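Figure 6 in text form: structure in, sequence out.
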């Protein structure tokens, strides 16, 4: 007969409270992790499709929404994944304790007497590991949702401040100074809680109950309560902040925030934008320039979700049509500023931002001026010979990008390889966007095609 006692039934041990639905916890965590893993890619595709249509404050607002959305998803994915692993570890410990309730049998260990003494004194038992894993998993969701709600609150606060700034600018300032109003609103929203906290810490205990200063400070505390969105996440956050040791909790909290922002910057900015590259391709250039063939230049080879907002394109690398259809997208953050600065007298053909759509097309003089400016700032050549294509305004049917299109005849072109060269998207001389100084932004687009 075996010396090992019969396993204790579930829900009858000290570490397994009756009625705890741990099986459901594991099922939910696994299902949620699988579902959440699909969302970052969907957010990326939505952002890529929306961002080419905006510039300035609107672009900054969209990037902020994208950033906080990805941070919320990363927080939830990490928390559910860690919870799933933690609960699996916890279940494994419970099974181990049920099969071997006596724990470690040090007499059977192969260590010598000194190591056995040190290890047995320092090593905690299985029950302690079970309890610590249970506490960690129980607190994890509250901690993660506090961070997620903090990001959600930041998104809502930025949106409300931007809406207020836009309304004030439109109603009272003739549509100007929206950025200044936005930063004033944000500064007031931050200074009121911070100022109230400082005053309360300094003199709050000395103010007479029922007195005017006390009532004023109480009113400011109430305003701060709502500005800090305490009804949203205050209860959970305060329970966590007040029950953990500050020396341990605050570093973990801020380290988690820093880690999330680092993951976003590295993955979603540097790697996605090509600022950082990985791989051991020592004898292949990062930017092939005129020596390469880039799939994004051809509509037939682009991924369905690829929306390159600054790359011109033609229909295919092997052209069987009598014309090469060249499409050059319009980038609001590049073309708009460059046209206004470098083409004197060119007037916009539509109002920027939110406006009522114009039904009547613009007059010929204004259109010719814009197209002439575009041709000068973004020149086109075919096999080294400058072209002046007859551009027409166009909306790409797949990507939704707006720009100009030209149909270049293939009659008379040599059989085999041909080279269409398009200048890079223009940019303003001053106040360039982040990343505009990179060499790849100054490189022309070399679009090879074969007849």
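Output sequence:
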């Amino acid at each position: 007969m075996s010396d090992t006692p019969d396993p204790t039934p579930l829900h009858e041990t000290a570490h397994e409270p009756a009625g705890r639905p741990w099986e459901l916890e594991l099922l939910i965590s696994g299902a949620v992790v699988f579902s959440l893993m699909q969302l970052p890619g969907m957010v990326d595709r939505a952002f890529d499709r929306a961002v080419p249509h905006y510039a300035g404050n609107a672009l900054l607002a969209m990037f902020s929404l994208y950033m906080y959305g990805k941070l919320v998803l990363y927080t939830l994915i990490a928390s559910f994944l860690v919870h799933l692993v933690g609960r699996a570890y916890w279940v494994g410990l419970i099974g181990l304790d049920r099969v071997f309730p006596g724990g470690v049998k040090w007499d059977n260990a192969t260590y010598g007497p000194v190591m056995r003494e040190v290890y047995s004194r320092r090593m905690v038992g299985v029950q302690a590991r079970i309890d610590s894993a249970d506490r960690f998993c129980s607190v994890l969701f509250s901690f993660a949702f506090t961070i997620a709600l903090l990001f959600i609150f930041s998104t809502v606060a930025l949106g409300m401040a931007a809406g207020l700034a836009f309304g004030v600018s439109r109603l009272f300032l003739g549509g100007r100074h929206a950025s200044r109003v936005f930063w004033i609103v944000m500064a007031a929203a931050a200074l009121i809680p911070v100022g109230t906290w400082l005053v309360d810490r300094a003199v709050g205990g000395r103010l007479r109950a029922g007195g005017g200063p006390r009532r004023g400070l109480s009113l400011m505390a109430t305003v701060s309560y709502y500005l800090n969105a305490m009804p949203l996440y205050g209860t959970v956050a305060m329970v966590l902040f007040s029950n953990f040791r500050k020396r341990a909790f605050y570093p973990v909290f801020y380290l988690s925030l820093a880690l999330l922002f680092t993951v976003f910057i590295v993955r979603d900015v540097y790697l996605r934008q090509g600022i950082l590259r990985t791989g051991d391709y020592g004898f292949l250039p990062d930017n092939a320039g005129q020596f390469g063939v880039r799939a994004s230049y051809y509509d037939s080879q682009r991924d369905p979700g690829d929306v390159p907002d600054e790359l011109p394109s033609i229909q295919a690398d092997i052209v069987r049509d009598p014309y090469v259809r060249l499409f050059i997208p319009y980038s609001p953050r590049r073309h708009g500023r460059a046209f206004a600065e470098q083409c004197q007298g060119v007037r916009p053909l539509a109002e920027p931002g939110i406006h009522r759509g114009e039904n009547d097309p613009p007059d010929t003089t204004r259109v010719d001026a814009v197209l002439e400016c575009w041709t000068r700032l973004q020149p086109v050549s075919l096999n080294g010979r400058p072209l002046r294509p007859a551009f027409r305004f166009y909306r790409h049917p797949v990507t939704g990008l707006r720009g100009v299109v030209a149909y270049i005849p293939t009659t008379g072109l040599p059989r085999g390889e041909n080279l269409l060269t398009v200048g890079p998207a223009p940019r303003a001389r001053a106040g360039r966007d982040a990343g505009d100084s990179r060499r790849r932004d100054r490189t022309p687009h070399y679009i090879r095609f074969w007849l």
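Caption detail: Residues 4 and 100 are 7 Å apart (CA to CA).
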